[in-house]
Amino acid sequence: MSSRPESERSDWTDLDLLTREEAYGRLQQEITETEARLAAFGDADQAAREFHETRLRALRSAAEDLIDAGATKKP
């Protein structure tokens, strides 16, 4: 156990980092789930629909950034 308080410990010490592939896979899963939630709303709840559309755009953008960053990374 570290002698440092929880707030001062580095995230790196937890060794819970994801690879790009793992992160991309999780994003794709969340995109699929968000698309399903969005489809279930129909036109009934416009505020919820807008929230999920915004979330979906952000998830897709994050997934695209992972792909772009991985493609430009040099071995």
Mean pLDDT: 80
- Reading the helices and strands in chain order gives HH
Task: Enumerate how many helices there are, as a single number.
Answer: 2
List the uncertain runs.
Answer: none
Biggest sheet layout? none
What does this structure look like?
This protein is an all-alpha fold. It is built from two helices and no strands. The longest helix is centred in the last third of the chain and has 27 residues, at 46-72. 3% of the residues are buried. The mean pLDDT is 80.
Features:
elongated, mainly alpha, single chain, 65% helix, 75 residues
List the helices and strands and how they pair.
Layout lengths: L19 H22 L4 H27 L3
Helix pairs in contact: 1-2
Quick recap:
With 75 residues, this protein is mainly α. It is 65% helix and 0% strand. The mean pLDDT is 80.
